[in-house]
Amino acid sequence: MNSPLRVLIMDSQPVMRDGVVSLIAGSMNCAVSAEDGGFSKAPGRILKERIDLVIADFRIHAETALPFLETLGKTAKGTRCLIFSAFDEAQVGYPCMRAGASGFVSKFAPADKLVEAARTVLDGRHYVSEKLAKALMGKQDSKLKGSAGALLSARELDVFSMIGGGMTVSEIAARLGISVKTVEAHRENIKNKLGCGNASQVVAAATRWLDETTVVI
Q1: How much is the pTM?
Q2: What class does CATH assign to 146-213?
């Protein structure tokens, strides 16, 4: 008898995390577990437990999923990742898919859409909306083409997100395990790519980006 598929749910909100665990476990023939320690601890667990599918929020404990997706693609190539987030898919879905995600589902979608997406991804296919599919084919509108998600690298967008969340350069360096100089170099690249005049404008742009990408209903 084949072993059941293994699914790992990653979300910093306990109610959301437990709800997704119950939904997936009750809808699919798989073993479901949860992780609340963030993206940095997950790769080791994924390899050890031979996880088939990760369902993760875009942002956990101030970090985005982008560097995690790139790490996953290098260390656990058999594991697929579905992003399940309240962030706007037109803004963050594009960089997630570019970084290696197999799909993107909004947290405001019906529950059966998440189950459908999980099954699709486990079947070896990608799950995206028509809007996101157009962006991936290079048909995104001018607003998306000029957005931070389209212009910045995965690590730059991670730093940008943390800046928007109010973290200092030192705090970002400690959280990501990199030097202050490296964070400053990323900030300089962000400034140049987004056409910001100084560090204060980077902070303003990052704060605005977080406000625009967080869906509120």
Answers
A1: 0.79
A2: mainly alpha
